[in-house]
Amino acid sequence: MAKNDVKVLGAWPSPYVMRPRIALNIKSVNYEFLEEKFDSKSELLLQSNPVHKKVPVLIHDDKPICESMIIVEYIDEVWTSGPSILPSDPYDRAIHRFWAAYVDEKWFAAMKGLRSAQGEERKAFLDRVIEGLALLEEAFGKCSKGKAFFGGDRIGLLDIAFGSFLAWLKVTEKVNGVKLLDEAKTPGLVKWAERFCADAAVKSVMPETEKLLEFSKFLAAKMKGAPPPKN
Amino acid sequence: MEEVKLLGVWPSPYSYRVIWALELKGVKYEYVKEDLANKSDLLLRYNPVHQKVPVLVHNDKPIAESTVILEYIEETWPHNPLLPTDPHERALARFWIKFLDDKSPTLLRFYLTVGEEQEKATKEVRELLKIIEEQGLGEKKYFGGDKIGLADLVFGFIPVWLGVLEESAGVKVMKPDDFPRLQVWIENFRENPVIKANLPDPHELLAHSKQKREVLLASKIA
To answer: CATH number of the domain at A90-212, please?
Structure first.
């Protein structure tokens, strides 16, 4: 398949954009990555995702697909010759989808809250983030059944959903001076995170923590209205 | 021996989506009425993370979150398919399902507010309906294409609950001449024999809706 039949519109800091890229890598599909500029939206983006005007968007044979997890499921359904991303059993699929929804709707919401919170509020969000990680540690035990990933021997839907947040998780740890993934409390997830970040499908698209940290400071300064910090 | 239980709550659109999916597929199930003010041990055991309904229990294995349940039902009982076969169309159906759920605060705000806030909220929900009609439904008969599908079950909120919320809140969000294509879809949806046979009683729903609004508004002022 020619490279430009498959395009991903995205931005390097976005965990959501990482997801389809990891999925395409798992399937060994060549694609063109079209990076959106930080403060402006391209014509192609506005045309391909008129409803939300957000990345990521997958464009396959000129047809756009939007929403990161929906794109991942699409990729799994179209490129069937590559390794499967979703489990084959309907109940296992439901478990992966359940926890992927939890990560997006509850856990990352608490992470975002933690980033912008001040004082007392910060402790409340931090507690929620840590409670969430305890639940995910338990889920990891049940899903992986002793294997390397939530998906078993290979990366699956839930690995992609949760793993895409690891770079931001590391930035949050640095900014807040806390350990979120902890060898004592979440030993399974600590090892899983290392394996996930080292995986061939992930390595090339996972941003370096330092680079993301700088971007995070840039974003924070922008939100306060101040000029970005000088290096 | 297949054992299917559905834990649900009477007026909830989320519970009804699952009921409609099971009924459309002709799956036999036991409906277990939950009381969210007094959650059963069963609910706490089957959905410890969210403690919410609906929860589908299939041969003692629980599945929570309505959209996850809908996909599970579709995969487990594949006859009478409720999702298109084409991957791109499936992705679109899922997109619109997510759209409606993500926008539920906007859908409900007019019902939960008064005065100027309500005016603003009414305008916003009308804008949403415009997007739903023009981009979601488009020229199709159903959100799912030629036949009723999962997306239609999720948009079922509009034919079944929106009117009741309008009446409770004393506002008209959809006037008779508005959104003609959506109105046709609403008729088709309500006329579907399975849907028709599985609707909450409109009088009870209205009474419940009015009472709930009073309680919610009172708690805001307090």
So the answer is: 1.20.1050.10
- Compare all CA atoms of chain A with the CA of B49 and give the residue at the minimum distance: A135
**Spatial separation of the C-alpha atoms in residues A172 and A168, rounded to whole Å:** 6
CB contact (8 A) between residue B76 and residue A90: yes
Q: Which CATH architecture has domain A6-78?
A: 3-Layer(aba) Sandwich (3.40)
Dump pLDDT digits (tens) for B139-159. Answer: 999 998 899 999 999 999 999
0.90 exceeded by pTM: yes
Residue B11 CA to residue B35 CA, distance in Å, equals 11
Give whole-number Cα distances, A94 to A42, A107, B67, B180, B216, in Å: 36, 18, 10, 37, 34
Q: For residue B118, which of B179, B178, B168, B180 has the smallest C-alpha distance?
A: B168
Kindly tell me if the per-residue pLDDT of B211 is higher than 60.
yes
* Cβ contact, residue pair B49, A93, below 8 Å: no
Summarised one tens digit per residue, pLDDT across range A99-145 is 999 999 999 999 999 888 888 898 999 999 999 999 999 999 999 99
